[in-house]
UniProtKB/TrEMBL annotation:
<comment type="similarity">
    <text>Belongs to the SURF1 family.</text>
</comment>
<feature type="transmembrane region" description="Helical">
    <location>
        <begin position="191"/>
        <end position="210"/>
    </location>
</feature>
<dbReference type="InterPro" id="IPR002994">
    <property type="entry name" value="Surf1/Shy1"/>
</dbReference>
<protein>
    <recommendedName>
        <fullName>SURF1-like protein</fullName>
    </recommendedName>
</protein>
<dbReference type="InterPro" id="IPR045214">
    <property type="entry name" value="Surf1/Surf4"/>
</dbReference>
<keyword id="KW-0472">Membrane</keyword>
<keyword id="KW-1133">Transmembrane helix</keyword>
<keyword id="KW-0812">Transmembrane</keyword>
<dbReference type="GO" id="GO:0005886">
    <property type="term" value="C:plasma membrane"/>
</dbReference>
<keyword id="KW-1003">Cell membrane</keyword>
<dbReference type="Pfam" id="PF02104">
    <property type="entry name" value="SURF1"/>
</dbReference>
Length: 222
């Protein structure tokens, strides 16, 4: 019950953060510990996209459909480089390796986003093969691929960048960005509590029957 209450409090805190006023881009955390206090806060990140190929994070779903999370590095005005989850695209069911062209705008970018943990890792049978499709977003692998150290968290882009036209605008429309807040499954803890209360009641009932009632009945019969 205590653990369930902790998760309810955490869920309320996440919802409150998501509804709080947007952070100033200069206030973004620089360490993992500081980032935890900013998770799910909205921010408009200002910087420019690094001219590198995106990474497509495999086996990610949106609305029950298989597809990819698209990852690109954004260099903030202050110099740090942050991993941006730009959005989700569906998998080509005829050719898994056929990926959409998703060009990025040149020049200054204003990216409406929210602060989020690093993309979750899925079970992998081995190391990712070189190429744009990856099973997991390994920080060391992405640093080596893009040539820049990354901040220890990510940004989930919430809307298209204000600037963009032609192929860039088309790419922005292709990406879907319905990022849900993590489900903490509080009901699971409530069910566990009910089970243990039932086990406790059963134990008490069995004790009363075998230690008190049954011996008394046996004496009365004798």
């Amino acid at each position: 019950m205590h653990r369930g209450q902790e998760k309810r409090a955490l869920q309320a805190e996440m919802t409150e953060r998501a509804q709080a006023p947007a952070l100033d881009g200069q206030a973004l955390a620089r360490t993992a510990l500081a980032a935890q206090g900013q998770w799910y806060r909205r921010v408009t990140a200002r910087g420019h996209w690094l001219p590198v190929a995106p990474v497509f994070l495999d086996n990610r779903q949106m609305d029950g459909r298989p597809g990819f999370f698209v990852l690109s590095p954004l260099q903030l005005d202050r110099g740090d480089v942050v991993l941006v989850q730009r959005g989700w695209v569906p998998r080509d069911m005829q050719d898994r390796n056929r990926l959409p062209a998703l060009p990025l705008p040149a020049g200054e970018a204003l990216v409406p986003a929210r602060v989020a943990p690093w993309p979750s890792s899925l079970t992998a049978l081995g190391a990712d093969a070189p190429g744009p499709i990856r099973q997991n977003a390994n920080p060391d692998a992405l640093t080596a691929l893009w040539g820049h150290a990354l901040l220890p968290y990510s940004l989930q882009q919430l809307a298209a960048s204000p600037a963009g036209a032609g192929a860039v605008a088309a790419a922005e429309q292709t990406l879907q960005r319905r990022w849900p807040l993590p489900a903490l499954d509080v009901r699971k803890h409530d069910l566990y509590a009910v089970q243990w209360f039932l086990f406790s009641s059963l134990t008490v009932g069995l004790y009363v029957w075998f230690q008190l009632i049954r011996p008394r009945l046996a004496r009365n019969t004798a």
